[in-house]
Amino acid sequence: LSDVELAAVRADFPLLARTLRDGRPLVYLDSGATAQKPDPVLDAEQDFYLQRNAAVHRGAHQLAEEATDAFEKARESVARLVGADTDEIVWTSGATAALNLVAYSIGNASLGRGGQAARRLAVGPGDEIVVTEAEHHANLLPWQELCARTGATLRWLGVDDDGHIRVEDAATVVTERTKILAFTHVSNVTGAITPVAPLVARAREVGALVVLDACQSVPHLPVDVKALDVDFAAFSAHKMLGPTGVGALYGRRELLEIMPPFLVGGSMVEMVTMEATTYAPPPQRFEAGTQPVAQAVAMGAAADYLLELGMDHVAAHEVALTRALLEAVDLPGVRVIGPTDTTDRLAVVSFVVEGVHSHDVGQVLDDKGIAVRVGHHCAQPLHRRFGVAATTRASASVYTTLDDIAALREHLAGVRTFFGLS
Length: 422
Ligand code: PMP
What we know:
Layout: H1 3-11, E1 27-28, H2 39-52, H3 62-82, E2 89-92, H4 95-110, H5 115-118, E3 128-132, H6 141-150, E4 153-157, H7 170-173, E5 178-184, H8 196-206, E6 209-213, H9 225-228, E7 232-236, E8 247-251, H10 253-258, E9 269-272, E10 277-279, H11 293-309, H12 311-328, E11 334-336, E12 348-353, H13 358-367, E13 370-371, E14 373-375, H14 380-385, E15 391-395, H15 402-412, H16 415-418
Parallel strand pairs: 1-13, 3-4, 3-5, 5-6, 6-7
Antiparallel strand pairs: 2-8, 7-8, 9-10, 11-12, 12-15, 14-15
Helix pairs in contact: 2-11, 3-11, 4-6, 11-12, 12-15
The structure holds 4'-deoxy-4'-aminopyridoxal-5'-phosphate.
């Protein structure tokens, strides 16, 4: 983005204009945790409540029709953003819910639910589920639980010293026993982009399903689920300039069609008797109960906003920010956890300041108005892999400027001296 374009983008984000304690300007470098929201997203959510609020898919009245239209148009926008067909997008409350949906549905299939058709999804003793050591807990715990419930075994691909997933190990770790291969597209700690193609190719060789955690990629890169050829992809609105409380699961149509539901209740059935129920086709089968409708509409607006910026432009801006962030943290006593070359990684940079706890680093930066994240970022195994309990993480988004990153460098440079270290 040119300076002019970037200024125009920033003007869309009202929160970026606020000041902090002592009138300090906000330097927001925590977009990997959650992104700020532009006016079109805020307006879409408010407009829904001001003009269209009604229960969707039910009422026979005009408002219900308008609400349903807005809700379904938003599904189209989200589908367009990731190259899916509209009926392959399931609304969820977020990526965590989307990943649990897949794991619990497969668990239900493993219990015989979903009948004959769903049996090809079933897992049990002797079967394996493969994840990676780089996963956010949201793409690890659902699979641990599925294994515990079904008797399947969890295996994983390790991470090498520079933070890349050891894709080459898929040749031996992913085998004929593997039923599911679940991995993150971009690590929320190292920023490394996982090469999807060789993992999908290996999964196809052995007939395993591929589940992609696309939380950190969808807001920053052009993502086309069909071109990637994954079976499922999960992402959250709040990381892609949308609201909290909503997210989406992409599922390949022929899989969604045979999957038993996870949550059951209203709005997802065809026929209910006291004895039994037949379920609606996807995506409704997976959308039990009242959905976060206004939030879904706003997620659609976020998808439209990104599409209008152009994901190629967004990705190019990200490359410039990645380079700047890596240069900013290139300081004595600062160790980056993850790749330090700018290729195949995004502007999510986690680091350790030798001799200073990440919470103290965060505190010093906060005093200067710089918002970063500290801790294990819901990826304890990955931190353990690097022998650290916690890191400080700076992460960028479409509205991040080189000035934001310069401020980080300026104040990070003083952290070790502040704590009496040279
Ligand atoms: N996966 C990754 C890679 C993430 O970064 C996050 C959010 N930190 C999640 C999953 C979970 O997303 P949510 O909390 O929005 O469900």
